[in-house]
């Protein structure tokens, strides 16, 4: 059983909120692919991954609402913030292209999130540590799914390899933002509550490079890096996603998940 954190902690609230936003936005992107995946089995696989992410988002957003002292619920945080008040990484909001783009993004994010949740199992915050222990087990499947499809597409036909490489080239500039340092995370890392993501990057690079090597794909070397999502600056694709996500809530005010 987790121990509820009752003291106001604005730094930790902001950190937990950004992690919840990542999960929520990626969940919505994956949900949009259901019935559009290459096979029925992949419809189910992506739906199950999205459900895991939705569960992560609910837990993290609700915890943020307790930590910041406002008592806002996960619904209030999900549905009643402006675009600039979301702090998700730009990677998760990208419009999915073909299936290879989705797999490329999942490869980047699943390896990052598994390393992050595993590291947070040692957080000095009891609630975050308990969540990390549960989430790290769940995202092992997300990682396995992405790894297997990366290899399958990379070693399949010439066309599947071309598309998988193109997907990697597209999403790679957005990976850097996941590992970017900032003052908030540095403060929390120093006190043991959070994990500075830069400390995860070397292992992430090793893991992903091994998958790409098996897939006979080339690790991209982007000439630029995406930034801004953590500060609430999003791509043009984010506003339509948010509008669609909120549409039922606006029709039925007061509804809950």
UniProtKB/TrEMBL annotation:
Coiled coil: none annotated. It comes from the Bacteria. InterPro entries: Aromatic_CoA_ox/epox, Ferritin-like, Ferritin-like_SF, PaaA_PaaC, PaaC. Pfam families: PaaA_PaaC. This is Phenylacetate-CoA oxygenase subunit PaaC. It comes from Streptomyces crystallinus. The gene is paaC_1.
